[in-house]
Hints:
The chain is mainly beta. It has one helix at 9-18, and strands at 3-7, 25-29, 32-36, 39-41, 46-49, 66-70, 74-76. The protein has one domain (3-76).
Amino acid sequence: MKTRIHVNQHNIRSNKTKGTELPVITVKQGRKNTYCNEVEILGPSKVTYAGFGTESKPLLSCGARVIIETDAEVKIKDLYEQNNSSEDPNPGHQG
């Protein structure tokens, strides 16, 4: 299964400015999103940038423009566990 990994710049900014501890990495496998702060890719991978200019489109529906793609196994090393199931680890960010 294709895995896509991206860094959530909104959470990085929030962690810095608001003192939050939101996860900054999203691992997408099919329709499943896993949030963490460290992931290990156990095989080949490719980093892709959406491109320059006004014609470029995000690579993911959440707006990510740089992603890492792999078919290799990935190990989530610092899994984000929500204390409250209604808490969104990516506020203001879509899937």
